[in-house]
Design a protein that fits this description.
Blueprint (H helix, E strand, L loop, with lengths): L2 H13 L3 H8 L5 E5 L5 H15 L7 E5 L2 H15 L7 E4 H11 L9 E2 L2 H15 L17 H14 L3 H17 L5 H6 L15 H30 L2 E2 L1 H14 L1 H8 L4 E4 L7 H10 L8 E5 L15 H9 L2 E5 L1 E2 L4 H11 L10 E2 L12 E5 L2 H17 L7 E5 L2 H13 L4 E3 L9 H14 L5 H8 L8 H6 L12 H19 L6 H11 L2 H7 L3 H21 L5 H13 L17 E5 L8 E6 L35 H17 L2 E10 L6 H4 L6 E2 L22 H9 L2 E2 L1 H9 L2 H8 L8 H15 L1 E3 L9 E5 L2 H15 L6 H20 L7 E13 L17 E12 L2 E8 L3 H5 L14 H14 L9 E8 L10 E2 L3 E2 L2 H20 L19 H7 L9 H15 L5 H9 L3 H7 L3 H4 L20 H18 L3 H14 L10 H18 L10 E11 L3 E13 L2 E8 L3 H6 L6 H14 L10 E8 L10 E6 L2 H19 L13 H5 L5 H15 L1
Parallel strand pairs: 1-7, 1-8, 2-3, 2-6, 4-5, 6-7, 9-10, 11-16, 11-17, 12-14, 12-15, 13-14, 15-16, 18-22, 23-24, 29-30
Antiparallel strand pairs: 19-20, 20-21, 21-22, 22-23, 24-25, 24-26, 27-28, 28-29, 30-31
Length: 1330
């Protein structure tokens, strides 16, 4: 289409606008502020206003900057602009504020100090971990031992951002803390500070005005933690600077700093912006507003256009001010335009939401329904109450079912709630009832079963030798489809025994092949290479393709790949083993790495989201669930925030306003307003009677239709049934014949029968953890501090003497040295060493606690037949041959008492909770109660002569911070006959279940709650369980449509991949499996065998040489300057060097090449105005399909236009690609097409030639070679046909064709995708839209 056509399109779209929208589009001079309520079409006016400026005011697109709130918003804006004004629309500078700043930083690296790099989440935490390991040690207020050692990590990062944004240092904190104490000191009766920190009247020990010790001590402790945090943050900040990293905050803060410091830089930036647009202005932070001001600084009447709605400002917690709109009005005195015609909602919804928001102090606007729903029935928002939260969920479930049954598209049903955890629970109920769900949730990479399985395989491969015990765990994974009874048949095989089961033997063989490659290769193998090798060698890529959740699995895989890449950039030449060590360190910090979901949004899914996540969306039916306030004011809708562990700041630094509670209340009201205004036709509000209905509903109760709920939901429940196939009878009998029951096995079985399935049936090895290793070390020390007076064994009840404290500490040193290798990091070793020393010192510190006597330690008691147990009313005849066994830590004689003692490490308070006997709340009793009874039974029936001595049991909690001794012990526990019979009944019942094989059903604890962690065994089963619902068909269509929407233009590299195998488009861009799985098309015919004389130079060499050559021609560099620039470029990219020459080798190689180029090529080549560098060209074929390319160098030599393209890599293979039909030939033709159709470059009467310079040619004495390609019209016709074929296939989702080569990964995997069905479904969807 030509300019006139686009002008016609623009005018047609312009005429669709209402009066106020037209005014917003037409007012182009000076500051303009548009107040756009929900559904008033603000996106339309932004794109049309840009089109107006370009069409009617003759402005270059590069002079227009549009700052959007999200990347999706930027992409949508560019699409709209292209539709209105063609390819020129894509040249408008549309981006998020962060992306705008990032581009400025990277383009002006000399101003921002070298080559800054964006910091990854992993790098951020790794740097923080190093600092915490060094400085947060015992004595530091932030120090915590054991699993919570890094619990301060997130509050430290929060403090880091606060100090950065507010430009604070330690002196500022110390000054404010001192000021706060002075205020407390000077406070008088009636002051809040006085009542908080001082006594109001005389008491027995205190006078009026004296400090309250607890309050002051708590304040001092908080201040110590804060200042300790400031110290860590300052070290962290220095480290970040040393690495030249920058993050999202820095993008804006650095830009502001440079714009303020450097007037020339500020002018150079603002001079390029003729028109500035800011979308969602109400959501810009104080810092972002400062940037906006600097972008138009110096302009008397700047052309700045902002769009926003003060009623939708909901990000105050991110530093956003609700006064943005008012501040802009005061600062710029803009033309103000208010959009009041709502094209989304019915009038009833508009009226109700307006009544709610009218309770805020705001500028009134009168929204009127003007869209397709303006004539919809005046249906007031429907309010329903349910007796409890469970009933509410099942009630809404039924309503959603009815809506879908009545013909409402699931995609037009939105469910909104306050907090994510609620949505996860409701999503499960929907899925259990056959309803597809799409939920906006942050999934954690480290929690994903698929991730854990891949990592387990990588760990296994990094072991130096084969291990059948570990292999059992690997072959259990559902990748391999091994029968569980087959795994059970190898459960007793030792480390290197031969496997006779064919299916397992084959997997073993494949794993050993990859292991040898990983451990014995003389070449460097990156983690990414090993990952792709594992996926192919073990056919895991095929498993992914067959999975009902393949898009999720690929999303997980992509995050793992990105993490590997990130770690390799931080640590060049990182091996797989090194990567696993880094991974372990990150997991040790208990961080979460979010997974970016690659799939599209299917039309058959109900949409679930938080109120914040609903912004910008719309649905015919909206359910706002859990419209409840909590018991405390801080728990009001949308729900309480978890502020535990956060630093407590002095009043002047806590970021809270004097009217904080009012501001918070108004923001929550705006959030509820945003949720309400997502509804187009009907708004459903629900709450449960187990807590108060939110007061926000009361504020518009006259606009509500309250409906009674008559249904009962008592019988409705969400069942977490976790079942695994039973073993075959032969296997069950073998397992039962081996049975000898310990108390740990019994306890585990009673918690979850699946523990027996995995631990005894399959004998899958459990990973050692910190608690197990440390407990083992302490138990061994406490065993060996007792020395027999005679030559008896320490496990015999004989006279023993105790080592001295010095000897005990030396013993600990020896044992710790032997066993601490099992601890995963130096920090954990250091912490546990200190922990162990403290335990020993505490035990010896208490006078006469460790003393000589008649003692036995680590006493094994085995072979106690249940049929031989005396004095019980329990009938054990059916299980009489089963034996009990155990090992008692310590037995001591004391007068008429025999005391059985068990040592416990870890949290004493948690341990004491396990001592409870059976009760209504805990019908089975606690584990430690049962252990005490079990040991009593063992000892009583062990045949040991104890005469008439009483048998008592005692626990020693060797770590008890609440006890002044540092440890504690229970009172002597006296076991009754009732206790014995109860435990024997539990034993009998458990053994009978084991005999029947009834241990294949789990406990079903899948979520963490206040009392329990999720069950590892149940999670292990679920990790191998396919989802009940299969929505692959709809996901394929939605993800294809998303991918097609992202295809803005075709490059020659994409065309080449398509022609190598048309299916590559699906695997590269739709499923996105190609990169992490290393997928490729089959090898090309007639490929010469190349003898490589050196290690490959790799992509970093190509980047550095390309950048250097660009600068040579751009800045007219001489050889010495070019070499210096090349070295700097190489240095800035050195972290990206993987699987290639080393930095020093690349340096030497590049110097030699540059010297040759300056000697033989550069002096005679064109420069200056006759050269155009890195020229990007775009062109639309037939006004429909866009193609683009970036040409390294264009030389204008009289009537000759020379396309110069630099190539690195194998020159021999590159030269082959110059043949007609091959990739480099096609690239030359493609560039010719771009040039001949370019509106920027005049090619009339000029000849175009393409010159390839192979910069890595060992066969040429100069080290490089030059080859020229002449393009004919026939060549261009061929490539134009290929371009047309690409777009035809992509537009119709026709991926049925393939290259058919035996070694093509895409063709190998095609059998798992119904491409014909995808093509048909896409056609159906297209017809619906049309």
């Amino acid at each position: 289409m030509n300019v006139a056509d686009f002008k016609k399109i623009y005018l047609e779209e312009y005429e669709k606008l209402n009066t106020q929208q037209k005014r917003a589009v037409d007012t182009v001079a000076g500051p303009v502020m548009v107040i756009a309520g929900p559904g008033t079409g603000k996106t339309q006016i932004l794109s049309r206003r840009v089109a107006n400026i370009m069409t009617n005011h003759y402005t270059n697109p590069e002079e227009i900057v549009c700052l959007t709130y999200t990347e999706a918003g930027a992409s949508e804006m560019l699409d709209r602009l292209e539709g209105l004004i063609g390819e020129e629309g894509r040249k408008v500078r549309v981006s998020t504020i962060h992306a705008f700043c990032s581009e400025l930083i990277l383009r002006n690296s000399e101003i921002f100090g070298g080559q800054p790099k964006i910091i990854s989440t992993a790098a951020k935490y790794e740097i923080l971990k190093e600092i915490m390991d060094e400085y947060v040690i015992e004595g530091n207020p932030l120090y915590k031992n054991s699993g919570k050692r890094y619990s301060a990590k997130d509050q430290l990062l929060e403090l880091f951002y606060k100090m950065k944004r507010e430009n604070l240092n330690k002196e500022d904190f110390e000054k404010e803390i001192d000021e706060y104490f002075k205020m407390i000191d000077l406070s008088i009766p009636g002051d809040d500070l006085y009542s908080k920190f001082k006594y109001a009247r005389n008491t027995k020990d205190k006078k009026a005005g004296d400090y309250k010790d607890n309050a002051i001590n708590e304040l001092q402790e908080n201040n110590k933690k804060l200042l300790a945090g400031v110290d860590i943050v300052e070290k962290y900040s220095n480290d970040i600077s040393d690495h030249n990293y920058f993050d999202f905050d820095d993008m804006i803060l650095w830009t502001i700093q440079k714009l303020e410091e450097d007037d020339d830089f500020q002018r150079s930036v603002s001079d390029t912006i003729k028109y500035l647009f800011v979308d969602e202005f109400q959501d810009t932070s104080v810092v972002q507003n400062k940037l906006v001001d600097l972008l138009v600084k110096g302009e008397k009447n700047p052309n700045i256009f902002v769009v926003g709605d003060d009623d939708q400002s909901i990000y105050r917690f991110q530093g956003v001010s609700a006064d943005n709109i008012r501040d802009f009005d005061r600062k710029y005195q803009p033309t103000k335009i208010i959009l009041e015609e709502n094209y989304r909602s019915s009038q009833a919804i508009i009226d109700a939401s307006r009544q709610l928001i009218s309770h805020n102090s705001r500028e009134e606007k009168l929204l009127i329904s003007a869209g397709a729903n303006k004539d919809y029935d005046y249906q007031l928002p429907i309010l329903k109450s349910y007796p409890n939260a469970k009933a509410e969920m099942f009630g809404v479930l039924n309503e959603i079912k009815e809506l879908i049954h009545s013909g409402v598209s699931p995609h037009e049903i939105g469910v909104i709630y306050g907090r994510n955890s609620y949505g996860e629970e409701f999503a499960k109920i929907l899925r259990d009832n056959g309803i597809f769900v799409q939920m906006r949730e942050n999934k954690d990479l480290f929690s994903e079963p698929f991730f854990k399985k891949i990592v387990a395989i990588l760990k296994y491969l990094c072991q130096t030798s084969r291990d059948v015990r570990e292999l059992r765990k690997i072959v259990y994974f559902d990748f391999f489809e091994v029968e569980l009874s087959e795994i059970a048949m190898i459960r007793n095989l030792k480390k290197d025994e031969k496997i006779s089961i064919p299916t397992i033997a084959e997997i073993d063989k494949k794993l050993e092949f990859v292991r040898k490659k990983v451990n014995k290769s003389s070449k460097y193998l990156s983690p990414m290479y090993v990952l792709s090798d594992v996926l192919k060698s073990l056919s895991i890529d095929e498993y992914i393709m067959k999975s009902k959740e393949k898009y999720h699995l690929v999303s997980v895989l992509n995050e793992l790949y990105k993490l590997m890449l990130t770690e390799c950039l931080i640590y060049p030449k990182l091996t797989v083993k090194g990567f696993l060590n880094q991974l372990s360190a990150l997991q040790e910090m208990r961080i979460s790495l979010p997974i970016e979901n690659i799939s599209g949004s299917p039309s058959n899914c109900v949409q679930l989201m938080t109120a914040h996540g609903s912004k910008g969306l719309e649905f015919e039916h909206v359910f706002i669930m859990k419209c409840n306030d909590g018991k405390k004011k801080s728990e009001s809708w949308p729900g309480g925030e978890n502020n535990s562990g956060r630093f407590v700041y002095p009043p002047n630094l806590n970021g809270k306003d004097e009217n904080e509670s009012k501001l918070k209340e108004e923001e929550n009201r705006r959030l509820f307003y945003v949720a309400m205004t997502r509804a187009k036709k009907v708004l459903h509000l629900t709450y449960s009677d187990d807590s108060t209905k939110t007061h926000f509903i009361n504020e518009f109760e006259e606009f509500i239709d309250e409906v009674d709920v008559t249904e009962s939901f008592e019988d409705c429940r969400s069942v977490d049934e976790v079942v695994i196939p039973k073993f075959t009878n032969d296997v069950l009998n073998e397992i039962f014949d081996e049975l000898s029951l310990s108390v740990s096995t019994l306890n585990a079985f009673l918690k979850c029968p699946l523990s027996f399935y995995f631990n005894k049936g399959l004998k899958l090895p459990s990973e050692t953890n910190e608690a197990m290793v440390f407990g083992s070390i302490i138990h061994e020390v406490l065993e060996k501090i007792y020395i027999s007076v005679d030559d008896s064994q320490i496990s015999e009840l004989t006279a023993k003497t105790v080592l001295s404290q010095e000897e005990a500490l030396a013993l600990f040193e020896t044992i710790f040295e032997e066993k601490s290798y099992q601890l995963s990091s130096d920090r954990i070793k250091k912490d546990n060493y200190v922990r162990g020393i403290r335990i020993i010192e505490n035990l010896y510190k208490k006078a006469s606690y460790l003393k000589d006597g008649v003692i036995a330690v680590e006493v094994p008691i085995q072979g106690i037949r249940l049929g031989d147990i005396l004095n019980t009313t329990v009938d054990l005849s059916e299980i009489s041959d089963i034996e009990l066994n155990g090992k008692i830590d310590k037995i001591e004689y004391e007068g008429n008492i025999v005391r059985l003692i068990d040592y416990k490490t870890g949290n004493a308070e948690n341990g004491k909770k396990k001592l409870v006997p059976p009760s209504e709340k805990a019908p089975l009793g606690g584990d430690y109660w049962r252990q005490a009874v079990f040991y009593y039974i063992l000892f009583k029936n062990a045949g040991i002569d104890i005469s008439d001595k009483a048998i008592l049991v005692k626990y020693v909690f060797v770590e008890d911070s609440n006890n002044e001794d540092g440890f504690s012990e229970t009172e002597d526990i006296r076991i009754t006959q009732s206790d014995v019979d109860t435990v024997l009944e539990q034993i009998k019942e458990s053994i009978m279940k084991i005999k029947q094989g009834d241990y294949n059903c789990g406990c079903g604890r899948l979520k963490k709650d206040r009392d329990n962690y999720p069950c590892d065994y149940c999670l292990q089963v679920l990790a191998n369980t396919a989802p009940k619902l299969d929505n692959t068909e709809a996901l394929e269509v939605a993800t294809y449509q998303q991918t097609r929407g992202n295809y803005k233009s075709l490059s020659v590299s994409k065309l080449n991949r398509f022609l190598s195998c048309p299916k590559s488009v699906y695997f590269d861009d739709v499923l996105q499996l190609s990169q992490p799985a290393g997928l490729s098309a089959g090898t090309k015919e007639k490929v010469a065998k190349v003898t490589v004389k050196h290690a490959p130079t790799g992509p970093v060499f190509g980047t550095a040489i390309h950048e250097t050559l660009e600068q040579i021609y751009k800045e007219d560099l001489q050889l010495e300057e070019a070499i210096e620039y090349y070295d700097n470029s190489l240095h800035s990219h050195q972290e990206e060097i993987i699987d290639t020459m080393s930095v020093e080798e690349l340096k030497e190689y590049g110097h030699r090449l540059l010297t040759n180029l300056f000697e033989h090529y550069i002096p005679d080549s064109l420069r200056g105005k006759n050269v155009c560098l890195e020229k990007e060209l775009r062109f639309k074929l037939g006004d429909k399909y866009s193609i683009n390319g970036i040409i390294d160098k264009l030389e204008f030599d009289n009537n000759l236009i020379r396309v110069v393209d630099y190539k690195t890599g194998s020159a021999q293979r590159g030269i082959e690609e110059l043949a007609v039909g091959r990739d480099y030939w096609r690239q030359a033709v493609f560039y010719n097409i771009l040039l001949e159709n370019s509106s920027e470059i005049d090619t009339n009467g000029k000849q175009i030639v393409t010159q390839y310079i192979f910069l890595d040619d060992d066969d040429a004495k100069e080290g490089y070679s030059i080859h020229t390609v002449d393009v004919t019209k026939e060549d261009m016709d061929i490539v134009l046909t290929q371009i047309q074929e690409f777009w035809d296939k992509v537009n119709s989702a026709d991926f049925t064709g393939g290259c058919g080569k035996d070694d093509c990964d895409y063709c190998r995997l095609e059998k798992f995708v119904d491409f014909q069905l995808l093509n048909e479904n896409v056609e159906v969807q297209s017809n619906k839209k049309n």
